[in-house]
Amino acid sequence: MALRDELGPYFGEFGGRFVPESLIAALDELAAAYELTKQDPTFAQELTHLHATYTGRPSIITEVPRFAEHAGGARIILKREDLNHTGSHKINNVLGQALLAKRLGKKRLIAETGAGQHGVATATAAALFGMECVVYMGQVDTERQALNVARMRLLGATVIPVTNGSRTLKDAINEALRDWVTNVDTTHYLLGTVAGPHPFPVMVRDFHKIIGEEARAQVLSLTGRLPDAVAACVGGGSNAIGIFHAFLDDASVGLYGFEAAGRGIDTPEHAATLTLGRPGVLHGARSYMLQDEDGQTMESHSISAGLDYPGVGPEHSWLKDLGRATYRPVTDVAAMDALRLLSRTEGIIPAIETAHGLAGALELGKELGSDAIILVNLSGRGDKDMQTAAEYFGILDGAPN
Amino acid sequence: MSLVETGLDAAKRATGGALIGYLPLGFPTLDESVEAAITLAKNGVDVLELGLPYSDPVMDGLVIQQATSIALENGFRISDAFDALAQITAEVETPALVMTYWNPVLAFGVDSFAQKLKEAGGAGLITPDLIPDEAQLWFDASEHYDLDRVFLAAPSSSEERLKRAIESSRGFVYAVSTMGITGTRKDVDTAAVSLVTKLRELEAEHVGVGLGISSAEQVGEVLSYADGAIVGSALVQALASGGVEALAQTALDLATGKPATA
User: Fold this and answer.
1) pLDDT at B262 over 50
2) Per-residue pLDDT, B179
3) Same domain for A246 and A279?
4) Residue A280 within any structural domain of the chain
């Protein structure tokens, strides 16, 4: 069977449904409704129409030769998900799930968000469809991504800062799950990554696989061949699986996910789940995760809120164990260097999350040599990160440079 | 032999139903949690439900979250749970179930966990985020060590899933009274009665009802149709605010709700 055809609920020994019984009926309903939409041409037409008239799909590709000079001369091509409406790939999944929620008669959308990109996309869809929207966001993240909090509120969403646990994405998911258990009759939990209980990992992947499908054809048309490597950052793993999926059965194409090494994988402050984690159960699925000897989830660290997560989607765990994809850690410093480099060489300011994939591509280029073609998922734009970047680089007036 | 079924049956005969009391191990300290559990057993609680503190308790409301966070901040380790349990079961004969999210068990090793639980005199496990569909390792281990398995049934569960919960459980089926998480509520949801009625029609022998029960009246109401009334947050609150004395008083008050002592 082709790797692309994996339908869940399990990816090898990963995935499944480790959630309270109260949620099973809703997950069954969602899985069944999702299966139906696959056979329903009007659903696909509706989503395609929205993508063409609202999201701005297909997104373009951009070759970045000045940036690539720093990557051993390999050709680097960016898939521009940053140009989507709301500024990241997240909208692909959000519109798909919001359409589905509408069909299920749900009037209320809830979501978790780390960097705020998924929260903004969900708030956007709620505004578009006239639904109520509540976004859970760790308090640490509401502070470092204050601009996105303002965007969500302007769009009419209620943003609830989560003050328990590590006050980041992990705890926002816990709080969203608690809300969902309580309000499942009226509410759809619009999960923003390829993690969680079945059917979320397959469904979210399917809504994002358009990234890789478009990019595969675009790279073929531009270069006449498939890329040697496809690179993306990995937190939960949605943008990575989105661009990987179309290439899963192309044996000549190397797939590389870059996760956050934070202050370094030799320190406790990282989010290198696939590099340093062990399989366990978190947020409804079995997958690699950062946990202590007792199975308590460990706190992760990354300068990027969107990668600051101690878990990862089960399909990535499966691809890692199969050896089909390679996952490597990228430090805060390397990511910020890549962010500045792309800004200065190409006039494109990426999100800090995305910059981890770019730093990885610089490394890959040097390894693969000047004949190589590397496709990078430019998953989001960096506007939301200006506060962090300005402080990091000391580029505000009055700040020491 | 199911320790919990024996305990529920004895309570039924003596007082018309069982009070099942939840407290987290390690809160406020490990030693005090041992004393607190023993206090419950000596003050009208028929079955103990001892919670294992976990970093991501998605079924728990604020009261229990705060208590288990304190236990973890104090350095609670899973191995401590077995020591505490052994001390409790040496002191009182009340059946003691452990309530745990699944990952700590997986990380410990399901078989080793079951073995340690048995050695410590534990009756079995309540597993809020483990559904029977994912529980093969636990079926094997619980059979091997003769332990009880308590799975959840929800108002949203289909008949097929209720059957599966009944067939999979040993001890009792944990009927979730409401769509929600743990915490005290003014009224027990009417969903509880219809859920227990459905479970009875499907021939569930023992049913405990939990979530939102915090007064003697609610205990009495629940025990008019179920075998056990499960109280958690109200007991944790009492322990947190007034120590074991307040806990003993709250447990005694709750126990007055049992039909035969009314």
Assistant:
1) no
2) 84
3) yes
4) yes
Any CB–CB contact under 8 A between B27 and chain A?
A: no
Q: Which residue range forms the structural domain that includes residue A292?
A: 53-87+208-393
Q: What is the enclosing helix (H) or strand (E) of A125?
A: helix A117-129
pLDDT exceeds cutoff 70 at B261: no
Question: Where does A196-291 show beta strands of DSSP type E?
Answer: 229-234, 254-262, 278-282, 285-289
Query: Which residues in B lie closer than 8 A to residue A280 (C-beta atoms)?
Result: 103, 106-107
Residue of B107, B129, B158 lying closest to A20 (CB–CB): B129
Examine the domain organization and report whether A223 and A313 are in the same domain: yes
Report helix angle B216-223 to B233-255, nearest 10. Answer: 70
Whether residue B133 lies in the annotated active site: no
| CB pairs A-B closer than 8 Å | 109
Domain boundary among A204, A236, A256: A204
pLDDT value of residue A145:
87
A185: contact with B, CB 8 A cutoff: yes
Q: What is the pLDDT of residues A216-265, one digit of tens each?
A: 999 999 999 999 999 999 999 999 999 999 999 999 999 999 999 999 99
B147 backbone dihedrals φ, ψ, rounded to 5° = -115, 155
Q: What is the ipTM of this complex?
A: 0.95
Residue A243 and residue A189 in one domain: no
Distance CA B248, CA B253 (A): 9
State the number of CA atoms in the 13 A half-sphere of A25 facing the CB: 18
Q: Are residues A188 and A115 in the same domain?
A: yes
Q: How far apart are CA A79 and CA A306, in angstroms?
A: 19
Cβ contact, residue pair B179, A17, below 8 Å: no
Residue A399 domain-assigned?
A: no
- Quick one: A196 and A216 in the same domain? no
What is the H or E stretch that residue A320 is in?
A: helix A314-322
What domains can you pick out in chain B, each with its CATH number?
3-256 (3.20.20.70)
pLDDT of the residue at B220: 96
- B63: confidence class by pLDDT, cuts 50, 70, 90: very high
Q: Which residues contact residue A346 at a Cβ distance below 8 angstroms, ignoring those fewer than 6 apart?
A: A62, A64, A66, A67
Judged by DSSP in three states, B179 sits in coil
Q: Nearest CA to CA, how far is A121 from chain B (Å)?
A: 25
What's the pLDDT tens digit per position in B99-147? Answer: 999 999 999 999 999 999 999 999 999 999 999 999 999 999 999 999 9
Same-domain check for residues A388 and A270: yes
Decide which of A204, A235, A254 is a domain's last residue. Answer: A204
Residues A198 and A328 in one domain: no
Contact of B138 with chain A, judged by CB distance below 8 Å, is answered with no
List pLDDT tens digits, range A190-199.
999 999 999 9
